[in-house]
Each structure stands twice: as structure tokens, then as C-alpha cells.
Design a protein that fits this description.
The protein has 330 residues and is of the alpha/beta class. It contains eleven helices and 13 strands. The strands form five sheets. It has a four-stranded parallel beta sheet, sandwiched between helices. Strands 11-12-13 form a three-stranded parallel beta sheet, sandwiched between helices. It has a two-stranded parallel sheet with strand order 1-2. Strand 11, helix 10 and strand 12 form a beta-alpha-beta unit. Helix 3 packs parallel to helix 10 and helix 4 runs parallel beside helix 9. The chain is globular. The N and C termini lie far apart (46 Å). The model has no long low-confidence stretch (mean pLDDT 89).
Length: 330
């Protein structure tokens, strides 16, 4: 699960059903014109999740944010569609949002590295920041819709309906989006998420493997971001909101190590590593987790069971068989 637009939505709803509050990354639930996150889900950009777990910030729940939607000025049809998307969010979600069309564009080029990671190049970011500095003040969150240059051959291959299920590569847009939103949140300390603007002729024709279907069924690609940012929590000081001390556990793909995992070890937060197909090969057993703070699950169904176990204060080895003898320390 992961690597495609919104294919974590159903899992996020399952996980949310087992906890008081689920804090998740936009790309778990972003599915172009779709976003099915539950009411107890907080939509939080990646670098903010890292800062939260490191004890640098808190997250304050809100009833609603006023959104600034920044779009690249392009063809009239494209900008009309974005305006329609914002209008749709206003009448369906009750979103309060204004649009600013940017004349000075930021150049985004995406692709895949040799190892299969999403990568890219950002140029002229100062143009984006200049617009933000000019307009961002009265708004609590920022939605971005910018043009992204793709490798056309790769893009058409990704959407080839005849391609084998097992051969589908990840959608590479996430790498460039991470760079852009991390930088924006670092500078403005406001929730931010990005939607790639649809450009040129679309290869979205035919019947696709289910993980690709949301993109094929979308026109404007931004509704998921508007829905997520509508009630995305504000970034506040550690003492003012939900902080690392409130986090019971973190779910990660098995084999992945980064600042969030290391922060969990430092903060004594339980980590549940879910076995799934990915390209990371770190041995998590080598890390210095406290006793009872690291678990492996074969799938998200099992991971939710471990979450319920933690919530009820039940030790994992008491519900698995065979059960070991009680230790006697000498």
C-alpha cells in the first residue's frame, strides 16, 4: 500500500477507527478529486509530522481554516477548472478560500531515480515565496496547484492499461511535492499541500488498475487538498497543542528509517512496522527501542489489532500462542 494517489484511503479509515485521533500525511488520502479521510483524521504535511515527533511543535485542532489557493497562471481552460474546483469545495465542504494566479512561475521537473525513488528539480522557488509573502498573512493554510513537467514516455507507460499489476512503478510526483511543501511550511509555519496541475493531453483513457483509477477519474486534481487543508491543525508551540507526549504509536512501512522513527525511539513512542513491498532495507532490529515499544505486523489488519492491544494495556505475548513461561529473575 502506498506510492499511488490515495490508495491508502481505506487503510486510513481502518486505522482511524482504532484510535482517538489519527495524524497522517496528505499523500495517504490525497486522491486528486477524492479524499475519504475520517472525521478524526488530522491532515498534516510531512515535515510538520517530523517536527511534532521531535518535540519541536504542537498541533492545534481547528474548526476551519481560511485557505489561500495559489495557482500557476496558464491556459484559460485550466484556470477556469481550478476556479470551479474551489467553488465546488466551497459549496460541498463549506471551505473559505480565495485564489491568486501567479504570473511568475516555479519550474518543477519530476522523475524516478535508478533505485525507484521519486525525485525532481525545483527552480525559481523565490517566485512562489514572493507571492506567499505578499498574500499569505490573512490565511491559515495554503493550497498549491503548480505545473509539473513530466517525462511523457514514463507517464504514458505508468497509465498503460495493459501493464501488469506487479510492474506498476510509484507515481513520482511526491518527491517534488515534498521539497516544495517542506520549504513553504518551514518559512511560513502554516499547513500547506500541493496538487500537480493537469497539463497537456492526458493519457487517461481506458480501464486502469484500481490504484491508478483516481487520477484517471479526475479533472482538476485539487479537491483532495482543499478538503484536507480545510481543517488541518495549526502549527503552534509544544505546550499549546497535541505534542509528542500525546502520541501513543506510529505506523511505518517495515524497513524504513528516518527522523520520525529516531524521534520515536528518543521520545519512547511505540512503533509498529507493517510488512509491505518497498525498496527500503534497513534492519529495524538494530535500533535501540525500549522493551514493548517495537512491533511488526504482517498487514494493516494486524497493525490495528496491535494498536487496540496498546490502548487496552495488554502485552502482546499474552495473546499469542505458544505462550512462554513466566520469567523468574535471579
Amino acid at each position: 500500500i502506498g506510492g499511488h494517489e490515495g490508495d491508502g484511503n481505506a487503510v486510513s479509515r481502518l486505522v482511524a477507527s482504532a484510535c482517538d485521533t489519527l495524524i497522517t500525511h496528505p499523500n495517504v488520502v490525497n486522491a486528486t478529486d477524492y479524499n475519504e479521510m475520517s472525521k478524526n483524521t488530522l491532515y498534516v504535511e510531512g515535515s510538520s509530522i517530523t517536527r511534532l515527533l521531535m518535540g519541536q511543535i504542537g498541533l492545534q485542532k481547528v474548526r476551519a481554516n481560511r485557505l489561500l489557493t495559489l495557482v500557476d497562471k496558464g491556459a484559460t481552460k485550466y484556470n477556469d477548472e481550478i476556479r470551479n474546483a474551489v467553488s465546488t469545495a466551497r459549496i460541498t465542504l463549506g471551505v473559505d478560500s480565495d485564489i491568486v494566479e501567479m504570473d511568475k512561475l516555479t519550474s518543477c521537473k519530476i522523475g524516478l531515480s535508478g533505485s525507484g525513488r521519486a525525485v525532481g528539480v525545483l527552480e525559481n522557488m523565490e517566485n512562489l515565496f514572493e507571492t506567499m509573502y505578499k498574500h499569505a498573512d490573512p490565511y491559515q493554510a495554503i493550497a498549491l496547484s503548480t505545473h509539473v513537467e513530466r517525462d511523457t514516455d514514463w507517464y504514458r507507460d505508468y497509465f498503460n492499461p495493459d501493464r501488469e499489476y506487479r510492474d506498476i512503478a510509484v507515481n513520482p510526483t511526491g518527491g517534488i511535492e515534498a521539497m516544495m511543501t517542506h520549504a513553504a511550511v518551514e518559512l511560513f509555519n502554516k499547513p500547506c499541500a500541493h496538487a500537480p496541475a493537469p497539463v497537456g493531453d492526458s493519457p487517461h483513457q481506458g480501464v486502469f488498475e484500481p490504484r491508478l483509477a483516481p487520477v484517471a477519474g479526475s479533472i482538476r486534481h485539487i479537491h483532495c487538498v482543499l478538503k484536507g487543508l480545510h481543517q488541518s491543525p495549526r502549527i503552534v508551540s509544544y505546550e499549546q497543542g497535541i505534542n509528542a507526549g500525546d502520541i501513543s504509536c506510529v505506523l511505518i512501512p517495515n524497513g524504513c528509517v528516518g527522523l520520525p522513527v529516531l524521534a520515536c525511539i528518543n521520545q519512547g513512542i511505540a512503533v509498529i512496522a507493517v510488512r509491505n513491498r518497498n525498496i527500503m532495507n534497513n534492519d529495524l532490529d538494530e535500533l535501540d527501542f525500549e522493551h514493548g515499544k517495537f512491533f511488526r505486523a504482517d498487514n494493516y489488519l494486524e497493525a490495528v489489532g496491535i494498536m487496540r492491544m496498546l490502548k487496552e494495556g495488554i502485552a502482546l505475548d499474552t495473546v499469542t500462542r505458544p505462550i512462554s513461561h513466566t520469567r523468574v529473575l535471579k
